[in-house]
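Note to self: keep these together.
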Amino acid sequence: MGLKFRLTLMNFLQYAIWGAWLISLGAYLGGSLKFEGFQIGSFFATMGIASLFMPGIVGIIADRWIPAQKLLGICHFLAALFLVFAAPQTDYKTLYTLILCSVMFYMPTIALSNSVAYSVLTKGGFNIVKDFPRIRVWGTIGFIFSMILVDLLGFAQTSYQLYLSAGLGFVLSFYSFTLPNCSVGATVERKSWVDYMGLRAFALFKQKKMAIFFLFSMMLGMSLQITNAFGNDYLTNFFGKNPLYKGTFGVEHANILISLSQASETLCILLIPFFLRKFGIKKVMLISMVAWVLRFGLLGTGNPGGGVWMLVLSMIVYGVAFDFFNISGSLFVENETDSSIRSSAQGVFMIMTNGFGAFIGSYVAGWIVDKAGWPNSWFVFAGYSLVVTIVFAIVFKYKHDPTQLGKISH
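Structure:
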């Protein structure tokens, strides 16, 4: 079994686990369990809470003591175990606590899986910028697979989605221990207590370029959690209550409609190497930000009836919005940092996007939904994204050198 295939399978399972509940959980919480917008937002904020410190801690452990692929297996096992305990719960506090415990161990695996892939590809003599997107695209396919499976099995508004996610998590847990070994950085010379503790990745904030990049990564992370938390709930429960849209495909099969977003990702991931080389990280991030404006605006103006074309276009735009920020950002961090802090640098990126970004975005979005209602909330989010775009264009200074992209000089 070739290295690329093994990493492809890892990515497929990594995101199939997430796809089984990330998009449909909001509909289950708001529909079957009758939770309010702020409560729904709090469940998605758990990913932010976990990502504030867990990716950093786990990244340090992977860099210093435990090989990344083994730590990946341990984290997936614990995350899946907590999902099994969470699935039968209907009380808000109990369900919230168990979901929080699960994502505490799942969220670090996103950065860890990237680190494993980068390490294996580097040792195998592959070009990371060229080869990683072709492997990572199968993660999106896995995400789509789970979303559609949950929809077709009728799990979208039941707790069975959590059981499915847990089952996939156990599979990846055991598979992770069979992956090629990723060396730890114990032999790297450390001249200060920061190096000794493995915290050198946080020194990246001393670089103005990286500090600004991480700040705006956080802001884009807020946009991502808004759409994850409320997209399905909006289609299923808001439009589902309107007699004009009852029985429409968008209401009855919201997960499948939203899966077009991930289908768009598969194409956009493959375009990343070209766009990064041609335009550089600043323009690629700007394209992502403009796409977020369109994503939210189209969700606010569309409907599952005559306006379904706007919803479909919003799903297509999502691929650009997500990939040109998330995947390109991860590659940018890899290209700008030393291999001895690979896992912890990816962890810092996760802290800013799925940590602070998710935490702030989820709670603020929940508050806005309760206050402004639908579809006005989408227009508030679109306005926010537009402001972020303009400010980023002004303050982020980066000179693009296509000859350096992919040449990891460690």
